[in-house]
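Re: beginner question about structure tokens

> Can someone show what the tokenized structure looks like for a real chain? I only ever see the sequence side.

Sure, here's an example I had lying around. Input first:
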Amino acid sequence: EFSPRDAYETRKIERVPAVDTYEIGKYVTTRNDIDHNGHVNNLRYADMVLAFEKKNPAPVRSFIINFSVECHENETLTIYSDGDTLFTGKKQDGTMSFTAKLIRENY
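And the corresponding structure tokens:
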């Protein structure tokens, strides 16, 4: 018998660990980053990571992000990396805003 639960794939949400090995850049949020709720739009966080992560030209296959604290206009985020696939964004007071994992295609 069909159950509505069968209609959706269930996957465990991956928790991305925080890293602060290398500071790779600072990003000041602008009005263009803000959504209708007054917070930074979720897609802008991916833009922040990709703006500073330039060592690997391979296409992005997957991007996992965990949000911790909302960001607003004119906030400065410091972006950190482990030098490979993990990234963390922190506000000026050291509060972690997000963690992310960037997975690229192999070529």
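Each token stands for a local structural state, so reading them left to right follows the chain. The mean pLDDT is 89.
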